[in-house]
Amino acid sequence: MKNFSFYKGDSAFWYLIIIGFLLSCTPALANKLLRQIQSLPQQIQISGTITDGTNPLPGVSITIKGKATTVSISDFNGQYAITALPDDTLVFTYMGFKTLSIPVDGRSVVNIQMQEDATALQEVKINAGYYSVKESERTGSIAKIVAKDIEKQPVNNPLAAMQGRMSGVNITQSTGTPGGGFAIQIRGLNSIRGTGNDPLYIVNGVPYASQSLGNAELTNGVLQTQSSPLNSINPSDIESLEVLKDADATAIYGSRGANGVVLITTKKGKAGKSRFSVQASTTVGKITNHLKLLNTQQYLAMRREAFQNDGLTQYSDTDYDLNGTWDQTRSTNWQKQLIGTNSYISNVQLSLSGGNAETQYLLTGTWRDETTVFPGDAHYTKGAVHSSITHRSTDERFTLQFSADYSNDKNTLPGADLTRLAYTLAPNAPALYDEYANLNWENGTFENPLSYLEGTYHTNTQNLIANTLLSYRLGNDFELKSSFGYTDTRLSEIRTRPSTMYNPIFEVTSADSQLLLNKGARQSWIAEPQITWANKWNKAAINVLAGSTFQSQQQESLALDGYGFASNEVINSLVAATTITILNHDITEYRYNALFGRLNINWDGRYIINLTARRDGSSRFGPDRRFANFGAVGAAWVFSKEKILQNSHAISFGKLRASYGITGNDQIGDYQYLDTYAVTANNYDGTIGMAPTRLFNPDFGWETNKKLEAAIDLGFLNDRIFLTAAAFRNRSGNQLIGVPLPGTTGFPSIQANLGATVENSGLEFDLRTVNVTTQNFKWSTSLNLSLLRNKLLEFPGLEGSTYKNTFVIGASLNIRKAYQFTGIDPETGLYSFMDFNNDGIISSNEDRKVIIDTTPEYFGGLSNQMSYKNWSLDFLFQFVKQQGTDVLATFPITGAFSNQPTSVLNNYPQSGSDSTIQQYTTGENAEAITAFNNFTRSDAVVTDASFIRLKSVVLSYGLPSLGTKAISGRIYLQGQNLLTLTNYKGPDPENQSGVYLPPLRQITLGVQLSF
After folding, report:
1. What is the pLDDT of residue 735?
2. Is 556 exposed, middle or buried (0-12, 13-18, 19+ CB in 10 A)?
3. Do the bridges between strand 651-665 and strand 379-392 make them parallel or antiparallel, or are there none, so unpaired?
4. How far is it, in rounded angstroms, from Cα 443 to Cα 499?
5. How would you label 521-542 residue by residue, b for 16+ Cβ within 10 Å and e otherwise?
């Protein structure tokens, strides 16, 4: 067939002449054609905002019906712009939401509210680390929360945003003091070593060390645990958090996945016009619960009765509360004075995003300032910058992703947590300040709690995480990929103890002042080249992944103690100290290398097999034990795709899945297999000596964790009701612990593998329901429930080891052995206990037979999301069923120079046989002291610490677009820890400390604007 071209040869020239001649000869025809052209509809610029009813939706595809080549993508703030004719129809599509077709009808602004499609949610991609998988086709156990869930809480640590939202993940906050840490357990404790149970954290593909660079000598008394490095990761920059739990999901990480994997993915830019967003909020925090303590009258009556019980007729010179030195009519609420003020958080975030179909960018900056409820001017400030660039070539073969996160945290806290003093100070203690506004020492009789404010605890943490991902697609089957990551964390800690902290009566001078310094630095790099091959034949799809990991980490820490200064004015200068002692100086290096692979076979989306394997090498083991193999197999059957169920109206989705595999653990610290030496403080003939600190043992190897799981996913009524139920059993063996040695060796233990086995088993349930979905009103509910059991299956030689008083075969690792409380002996008026060996003596080794298990019996969360037009309401209840320690165990003996909870009023002999508290004593009765010490280690202080907590509430209003610049935004009111329902009598049932500040109740008011 011969092709004709208008542009070929001279044709174009002759056509123009002919048309011009006709038009010039027929002006009427020309005018008619011109009028027709002018009457044609003109294209208009259409813009608007796309939301889910609450939050903007970035990444929504907008096309014109019948003109698929015209495409626009909504940006980070849900904004879009597209050119169309007035009578065109716009089509909006987004994964997980129903497709909408909206006529333009001549409008220039079209705002859209999309509705979730429960069925489409099964097509959402889940990040599994080295690969992603559809929710409907995953074979492993992966929990996920996204940015809109994280942003609902005014928290500083990503772990805080996960509390109550994931099955199998138990998170406990250690303190309400800014910069405090969190404890996390993913499906229980696997290692007997307390430091061997941390999960692996991956930030944009880069491993992130969770071990603190802090020094316990400096944090002691200020924070319950050392500060968490995860405080340096800005929650508002996180796009999603995935937790990998079973073998199928974690085995590809090998030795690092034994305790689960937490994947943190930060936000990326979206295609569209450049958009600027600003978010600002203010938070007010306050103590949630005040203890009921004795008032002055009750307190003095307790003290007088204690003297009477001890047969003392006169008060000593140091009994200032009773001997007339202090005003016995004075009454102070020390909880209000020391921990009763409000804390304030100011948070501002700015972001700029945009790009086109090939290149997208995002730049955000966040500043946060937080005060405490303690007196004084303590501040926790953090500045964070997040940047992301994504580029894809026009042929979509080459992709580059770069992200960098930098943060700088500064924490200035008082030299001690004042919470314990707020509970124990006598209610008639003197005023904090004298008439001249100076610290009141009441002539040396009062240990003023504000003296701790004279001391300081300062930290400065700088953290950088950078990652570059390069990928190139060869044809349609192969993809080459390589990830390069770098982290740099630096910590500086300073703690001062000036002489002004101490009572002037002791005549302490600056010659006794102390300065503690700690500097830590950790740098690591990682490179992971990978290749992926994927193909499909008819109904069979195969995906193969192979890669390698090269990682190096260097860490250095130096802690110094400076003592004695000419003046407190120079206390921050170490060179001014008269004595300088090196507390710790470590330089360590860790090298890691691995090969990993994955084979996934998918038949028609119904039958799926997933094989993962990894060969790990770690420098923490001897030369012959450094390498080990780990792997897993996962399988799934999507039975809802079988013919018998394809047309089912009741069961819309059904999947059975199971997995089994082995992961490992090398969390033992560096150089544990080597002979190591430490410089001693001893000076012999002018020479400083060295002393051995560890014995050589190159024969120990990896801990191993064998994980087994079976689960079912069920969707009903078009997935409006979706249930996931999983049963698992993990057995961790070859435990890496210190094997006790005879004292004659000079060493208490040697690092080795012990044939002890720890089992974690349990059930997990996740339920999601779409209760109501209309054009204006939506309501959905999510529930997660976890029932976990921990058990020590075997421990060879336990009875002959130093662990015999700590662990019991067949019991949990979370136990403690306790005395059996038998009541109050009416003859002595003191606590009594069961004498199991009938030797007439209550001894810790022979009579502590009661096993107290503090493992939560179950825990979970219930959340609801509701929206009506521009309004939305979200709330989350967290619940835990557990045993804990009564707050009485944290107080001194009743009758001593210390305030007490009002429960001590039920004492002997005043309450007779119904007494729960033994007779008071000043501390002069040795038998009473022994009975009290045994009481604190008995089952009498074990109490129900279960609770239901209204963890978070968010009420927000989406502002309609304003003006021609399409300004959009929302106003929101957040609440954190608003209400706790519990029978626990202490400050907080979560950790039952009684010594450190509990989590605060926080109210946040914020606004977000985009333009």
Report:
1. 85
2. middle
3. unpaired
4. 17
5. bbebbbebebbbeeeeeeeebe
Question: For 499-606, where are the E strands, in sequence order?
Answer: 514-537, 540-563, 579-603
User: By the 8 A CB rule, do 337 and 466 touch?
Assistant: no
User: Pairing mode, if any, of strands 61-64 and 67-73?
Assistant: antiparallel
Domain count along the chain: 1
Give the residue carrying structure tokens 């985009």: 1010
Q: Is residue 70 part of a domain?
A: yes
Count Cβ atoms below 10 Å from residue 191 Cβ, excluding itself: 23
Q: Quick check: 746 and 668 in contact, CB under 8 A?
A: no
Residue 768, domain member (yes or no): no
What's the N-to-C CA distance of the chain in angstroms? Answer: 56
Looking at the chain, the whole-number percentage of residues with pLDDT higher than 90 is 58
pLDDT tens per residue across span 936-950: 999 999 999 999 999
The structure's pTM equals 0.86
Buried b (16+ CB within 10 A) or exposed e, 482-502: bbbbbbebbbbbbbbbbbbbb
Residue with tokens 């039952």: 992
Closest CA to 1009 of 979, 973, 966, 950: 966
For residue 726, give the nearest of 664, 658, 773, 772 by alpha carbon.
658
Residue type, 324: G
Q: How far apart are CA 127 and CA 873, in angstroms?
A: 28
Q: Are 467 and 403 a contacting pair, CB within 8 Å?
A: yes
Listing DSSP states for 958-985 in one string gives EEEEETTTTEEEEEEEEEEEEEEEE---
Question: How far is Cα 460 from Cα 410, in angstroms, rounded to an integer?
Answer: 5
Return d(Cα 951, Cα 949) in angstroms, integer.
5
pLDDT, tens digit, 9 for 90 and up, residues 420-458: 999 999 999 999 999 889 999 999 999 999 999 999 999
Can you tell me the distance from the alpha carbon of 125 to that of 135, in angstroms, rounded to the nearest whole number? Answer: 6
Query: What is the domain range of residue 111?
Result: 44-117
pLDDT digits (tens, 9 = 90+) for 244-303: 999 999 999 988 888 999 999 999 988 777 888 999 999 999 998 899 999 999 999 999
65 is a domain residue: yes
Distance CA 970, CA 49 (A): 13
For residue range 536-564, what is the model confidence (pLDDT) as tens digits?
888 899 999 999 999 999 999 999 999 99
Q: Does residue 458 belong to any structural domain of this protein?
A: no
Residue 258 corresponds to which tokens in the numbers above? 């034994």
Give the integer Cα–Cα distance in Å for 499 and 506.
10
Helix (H, G, I), strand (E, B) or coil at 246: coil
Other beta carbons within 10 angstroms of residue 97's beta carbon come to 18
| Number of residues that this document lists for the chain | 1011
Query: Could you give the CA distance from residue 208 to residue 229 in angstroms, rounded to a whole number?
Result: 9
- Packed helices 27-39 and 11-25: angle between N→C axes, nearest 10 degrees: 100
The Cα–Cα gap between 482 and 550 comes to 12
Q: What is the CATH number of the domain that holds 110?
A: 2.60.40.4130
